[in-house]
TrEMBL record, chains A, B:
Name used for this protein in its record: TetR/AcrR family transcriptional regulator
Keyword Transcription regulation set for record: yes
Domain spans labelled HTH tetR-type: 18-58
Organism: Kineosporia mesophila
Keyword Membrane appears in the UniProt entry: no
SUPFAM superfamilies: Homeodomain-like, Tetracyclin repressor-like, C-terminal domain
Keywords assigned: DNA-binding, Transcription, Transcription regulation
PANTHER family with a match to the protein in the record: HTH-TYPE TRANSCRIPTIONAL REGULATOR LMRA, TRANSCRIPTIONAL REGULATORY PROTEIN
DNA sequence: GTCTATACAGCGATAGAC
DNA sequence: GTCTATCGCTGTATAGAC
């Protein structure tokens, strides 16, 4: 079902790349028209709210992806080990193919934070909640998400892409060990 | 020794706050003049290279602080436990009083990353090296710095300042436990 | 739906008086 | 060293033809 006319969904994917490369403030409409191939007319047709509208559409799309591919598997049935494995696989695949940048984290650090505060907070708190559901351990959830996010920063800062999967793998085995210990306590308690 | 005329060092401190609040792209010269109380004339007198020069001065100042208060204690004499404790105390104090933002991390995520790539990489690799010196464990070093940086993001994203010291405290006890286990292996090896 | 032309505010930076 | 005035450019956003 090929289409001649552009679709909003296609534009959102291209926009995600641009925002990942340049951040919110650093992304100009000129860069967007170059990346998407759409003129300003088309862009404002799809996103009447302008640049903020475009960014919001991207965050929504990413949020939906995580809800579907990361949070839901964490809340599914099955042993914690398996649920955690599903999460780590999805997350590692996702960031490896997206320039090792988490848009929510990037937006949380800039002045655009206030503008998107609600959706940023929702992304992370949903993630923490789902991890807590899977492991029964809120602190473990926070440690795990923090390690993953920090590993993304380190990988980017040191220009060492391999650092992310390596750090994520250790976080995974630590999380699985602790979840197992919690499910089957060694002695009493 | 009071002075009437402004000093570059004072300006750098004020600039740090501005860049932390707005990021690099989001910091305008107008915001800088408001925050520092200096006109453009004075700013360009102190920082002939303009905005990039100002940001670089801030990064240098922060880098020096970490070198002195964080990395050196990690390389000092004494048991690993003590060196790690010194690092965590310094880091927690630092970020608690500075809006829970690491400028190097913030700059690493935006489009200004390329401009400051060298100094950003130096900051993190020095930190990792110093931690490896203290613990003898490169992976532990990466996990620790990643957890701290991720905790900063989470605290900011969730607007929950307490999350940072709580997560840092767990990272500290984990690091000390692992460093101890490495220094005094339980059995053979 | 897509284009070109344009409005107009704000940007970083500079000049020159004091 | 600090100020004010101003430059040239780019930013987002809009208007209107097609």
């Amino acid at each position: 079902m090929a289409r001649v006319q552009a679709e909003r969904a296609d534009a959102v994917l291209a926009l995600a790349t641009t925002f990942r490369l340049h951040g919110y403030e650093g992304t100009s409409l000129t860069a967007i028209t170059a990346q998407t191939g759409l003129g300003k007319g088309s862009l404002y047709h799809f996103f009447p709210g302008g640049k903020e509208d475009m960014a919001r559409a991207v965050l929504d799309e990413v949020g939906d992806w995580f809800r579907r591919e990361v949070y839901e598997p964490l809340r599914a049935d099955g042993p914690a080990d398996q649920r955690l494995a599903a999460m780590f696989t999805a997350v590692e695949t996702y960031f490896a193919s997206r320039h090792l940048v988490c848009l929510f984290a990037a937006f949380a650090l800039g002045q655009e934070r206030d503008r998107f505060a609600a959706v940023i907070a929702a992304y992370f708190s949903e993630w923490l909640d789902a991890l807590e559901t899977a492991t029964g351990d809120r602190e473990l959830a926070a440690d795990t998400v923090a390690t993953l996010q920090g590993a993304l920063i380190l990988a980017r800062a040191l220009n060492d892409p391999a650092l992310f999967p390596a750090t994520a793998a250790r976080a995974q085995s630590r999380a699985q060990t602790r979840a197992r210990a919690r499910a089957h306590p060694p002695l009493s308690s």
